[in-house]
Amino acid sequence: MVEGLAAYGVEVREEVERVREVVARLHAELPRWGLVVWTAGNISQRLTTADLFVIKPSGVTYDALTPEAMVVCDLDGVLVDGDRSPSSDTAAHAYVYKHMPHVGGVVHTHSTYATAWSARAEEIPCVLTMMADEFGGPIPIGPFALIGDDSIGRGIVETLRASRSRAVLMQNHGPFTIGRDGLDAVKAAVMVEEVARTVHVARELGPLVPIPQRDIDSLYARYQHVYGQGDSAPVLTEEGLA
Ligand SMILES: O=C(CO)[C@@H](O)[C@H](O)COP(=O)(O)O
C-alpha cells in the first residue's frame, strides 16, 4: 500500500510545497500583530488539488515554524505527511474544512481582548462600522467544548452557519476565524482582536450605541463588493504584506 504523500500525484505534492511555505510565513504574522504568546495559536490552509490541509506542528516556537516543520493532514485530521505531531486543534480545523467547502483557511488565537469576551461568553455587539464591514454584524459566541473529539469543530461550524461573521468566540477558549485562504483568515483574526479591544474600551466609557440593521447591511455589502482595489488585495510576499 502506498502511504503518505506518495499516494498523491505530482500536482498535489507540488502544491503541498507551496502551501507549506505560505502557512509557515503566515505564522510569523501572528506575533507581528500581537495575537499570540509562546506557542499558542495555529493557522492552516486547505489545498485546492486534494482533500488535505497544511497546519503547524503542536507546541513548536514561532521561530522554529519553517516550511519543513509544517505537517499535512486529511479532512479527518489524520497525519499524512510530516515528522511532528500536528497542532492540538487539528481536529477542529479538519471539521471546518469537511463541513464548510468554501473555507480555504482557518486561524485560531488566544488574542487578549477577543479571548476576554470568550471568557465572559458574551458576543461582541455590532457598534462599529468596521465590524459591519468585516463581519456583517455581531461576533457570536460558540459553545464551550473540550479538545479531544470534534466538539470544537462542531461548535465553530454550527455557530458560523447561523451568522454572517467570519469569526466565532469559542466560550472560555478564544477566537477561531475562517477565510477563503490562510491570509484571509489571518486578516479576520487581526480584525476581531481590534474590534474586541475597541468595543471593550468604548463600553468602559459609557453605553454602546448600536448601528441599525439596514445600515449594517449596507456597510457589509459595500465592503464585500466595492471596497479596495478589486482583485489586487494585499498578498503575502517574503518581505511581508504587499
Ligand atoms: O488552545 C489550545 C490548547 O488548549 C491551542 O490553541 C494552543 O494554544 C496551541 O496549540 P498547538 O497548535 O501548539 O498544539
From TrEMBL:
GO biological process: pentose catabolic process
EC number per UniProt: 5.1.3.4
InterPro entries found in the cross-reference section: Aldolase_class_II_sugar_metab, Aldolase_II/adducin_N, Aldolase_II/adducin_N_sf
UniProt protein name: L-ribulose-5-phosphate 4-epimerase
NCBIfam families assigned to the protein according to its UniProt record, in alphabetical order: PRK06557.1 (NF005123)
Cofactor(s) this protein cannot do without: Zn(2+)
GO cellular component, one term: cytosol
Catalytic activity: L-ribulose 5-phosphate = D-xylulose 5-phosphate
Pfam family, one: Aldolase_II
Residues covered by the Class II aldolase/adducin N-terminal domain: 21-200
GO molecular function, one term: aldehyde-lyase activity
Keywords for this protein: Metal-binding, Zinc
